[in-house]
Amino acid sequence: MSSTLDAPIARPAAEQAAAPRTPTRRRYLMCPPRHFAVVYAINPWMDPSRPVDQALAVAQWTALKEAYQRLGHTVEVIEPQAGLPDMVFAANSGTVVDGRVLGARFRAAERAAEADHYRRWFLEHSFRDVVMPTKINEGEGDFAWTGRVLLAGSGFRTDPDAHAEAQEVLGVPVVSLRLVDPRYYHLDTALFVLDDRPGRQEIAYYPEAFSPGSREVLRRLFPDAVLASPEDAACLGLNGVSDGRNVVLPVEATGLARQLADRGYQPVMVDISELRKSGGGPKCCTLELRG
């Protein structure tokens, strides 16, 4: 399992910004929040005493789905299941690279049943290379494919041993990163990939969410990464989705949006405040189906 590479992944920021940004069409899996609620607390964002407007959550999710479709992306939808209020967070259901699927195994008992519903969806939709994990991993919540390496988070949810399992199942090099701030309990709350094309890999992240050693690894691999402010991290601004040009962000992440626009990206702002009551944002609702 890789922990570092010999050379930086991305080109310098000035060269990146000068090159035209071109989107690539993506295929996503989403789950409508028809059963969304906050009835338990498994992360610091969740407070069952705060009222949840379920109709508003559905409206915000629908607007997110329609934003992807307007950008030319394909959105597949899985049927939500009663009793699984967090099933809306499809990113946690697995990791798909080149058509290979590593399923999820959740740490919290409240979410455990989601894994098999998603497993069946993969098999029913022509994904034949589907492996369910033996170690706890929460899918793209803690795995981020950069196009060259799989960045893998641990510290709160996914087991460190799951990183080696992901490398074996998906056949890609894995770089382990340790999260240290419980507010950023998944990797996708503190980091996301802006561009995954060869020679143009670029990420954005919040350094304070990571251990000192992990920060140094990210600095070496991505010396010109976009670094988010505490304010943008605090609204889950790093829970974004990019197609290489268009970057879908929470509407509150204005500073991050300005940084991305300066580099030639096109921010697409969405309101997903209701789902944030469960610690989710655009990426949490979105699993990318690669290959």
UniProtKB/TrEMBL annotation:
GO terms for molecular function: transferase activity. Pfam families: DDAH_eukar. This is Amidinotransferase. Gene3D superfamilies: L-arginine/glycine Amidinotransferase, Chain A. Keywords: Transferase. Residues 7-22 have a biased composition (Low complexity). Coiled coil: none annotated. It comes from the Bacteria. It comes from Gandjariella thermophila. The keyword Transferase applies. NCBIfam families: DiMArgaseDdahMtb. Residues 1-22 are annotated as: Disordered.
